[in-house]
Amino acid sequence: MNIQELFINNQNKSVLADGAMGTYFSKLTGLDSSVCEKYNVIAPDVIRKIHSGYMEAGAKILRTNTFSANTFSLAVSRQELAEILTNGFHIAEECAKDKAVVCADVSAIYDNSRTAAEILDEYQFIVDTFISCGAKTFIFETLPNIETVMPAIDYIKSVMPDAEIITSFTILADGRTRSGISTTKLLKRIEENKDKLTMVGLNCGCGTAQMFTHAVPFFSYIQQNTNLYTIVMPNAGYPAIENNRTVFTATPSYFAERTARFIPYKISAIGGCCGTEPDFIQLLGNIIKHHSSPVKTIVPYSRDETAKSPFSSQLAENKFIIAAELDPPNTSDLTKLINAAKILKESGVNIVTVSDSPLGHAKMDPVVCSARIKRKVGIETLPHICCRDRNMNALRSILLGANSEGIRAVLAVTGDHIAETDRGVVKPVFNVDSTRLMELISRMNDDVFSHSPIAIGGAYDPDPRKTKYSLNRLDKKINNGAKFLLTQPVFSDETIDSIEQARSKGIKVLVGIMPLVSYRNASFIKNEVPGMVIPQELVDKFDPDMTREESTEVGVEIAADIAKRMKPHADGFYFVTPFNRAEVIKKVIEKL
């Protein structure tokens, strides 16, 4: 019997799948589930008892006890692995007795120490072993994405074109997979590969109540856009730790009643995952058998065309952009910053950027500053968000807040390191770096911000001594969604080649221009600010005895001269406002 025959025989009603193997094995034996697959050889009667329990409960889909069966996970030889796979398949087949479809369970292989070729070779060995046993249906479950197992799927189809393939993904309570992929992106990838699949499902990750929220629109989309069968296998609930063992506290009746809510949505097969046992499945089967409620459908959310922010539109239309940076205060008073932003707006600046505690010195949150400036001044804002002080949850929270305030562009930066003198008092986080933050924003743009996406910016150092490193980092940033760059302030034509190489990759580059305002200011930046390269001849244009007005005029002339030389090589300017003196930027813009 195969999957298609099963559903034809069942008149396309929901059929019952089995429940957990690993957690039930641990309960029966008192052993860790990591040795579960080895018991196909060590003590096959234990595995036979588990399969038989699910068959007696009414299961029509039976997964082999081979979920983690590969040489990498089990640390066994190929000969030992072949015995584990073969025994696992034959035990399940013996228990099924032609009354259930036996699915050869092949896990996704994650091993960064192995090459892609080594992993493919492992998949091929596993598949060949199953095929030699007579397997025709394969299941890949608890998946974080489809890319991980596509090499195995492609191989199965190359050697057995009529093989049936089931892929089941793990969605966490927040609606994303374990690798952070949104259901929107996941559905797109499934649809692209639908001709290679027979059934698609969701399993593990969370209990039935949490899964239900995300699963119904997920399956509705599958039903409307593919001909694939569907399967759902939630956990018994959330696990708890008792006496150093993982246990699930949900009762069989609770699981069955809550999981039965999937029945009216035309889900092809329903079973269980971690924490479920034969009595859970039997109660669920009884509800399925006597269910008579009308069929329900949910139409997936239909996305309208997204409206771009003015900044994003200007980028897309190749308009020359003027951005100017302000430094947030170390007090709670934003009066000076707002007044500076007004001057910048009147000077023709398109967007105000707000730095994020540069050099690790705590200042007002850049998103709060940006939101206030946007409301008070009516100019678009671009907060810098650094990873030094926030873990992934905090970054996600601040992005949600930024988007709710109408902020539609951010600069993702890793963040300066904290001074040695602060270590122990102030601890850096660095849960992720700027490229991973960009990846997070891209994922949120796919779903949470689908109507109001955030344009992702990155920092770029055009120092010719670092070009190779900067371009390598840039490739990662572009792959993770970066649309524009703000460069470090430039003071020399030697940076032009690096800037042009960045632009050749199709990303917009706003060249950093920082007016120097005094001899002391120029000397300090040259000698004490990381990443700033100022030729000595520029420092020598200032004199320690100059008045403030004289020094400012020299600084404005230097900045305007640099900007004129850089304009043919830039998609815009990114002015770094010295000491928040917006009138200096105004003078530079007037000279241009």
Topology:
Blueprint: H1 3-9, E1 15-16, H2 22-29, H3 39-42, H4 44-57, E2 61-63, H5 71-74, H6 78-96, E3 101-105, H7 116-133, E4 137-143, H8 150-159, E5 164-169, H9 183-192, E6 199-207, H10 208-225, E7 229-235, E8 239-242, E9 245-248, H11 252-259, E10 269-270, H12 278-290, H13 310-316, E11 321-326, H14 335-346, E12 351-354, H15 366-377, E13 380-386, H16 392-404, E14 409-413, H17 434-446, E15 455-460, H18 467-479, E16 484-489, H19 496-503, E17 508-513, H20 519-528, H21 536-539, H22 548-566, E18 572-576, H23 582-591
Parallel strand pairs: 1-10, 2-3, 3-4, 4-5, 5-6, 6-7, 7-10, 11-12, 11-18, 12-13, 13-14, 14-15, 15-16, 16-17, 17-18
Antiparallel strand pairs: 8-9
Helix pairs in contact: 4-6, 4-12, 6-7, 7-8, 11-12, 14-15, 14-23, 17-18, 22-23
Task: Give keywords.
592 residues; alpha/beta; TIM Barrel; 2 domains; eight-stranded parallel β-sheet; eight-stranded parallel barrel; 23 helices; 16% strand; elongated
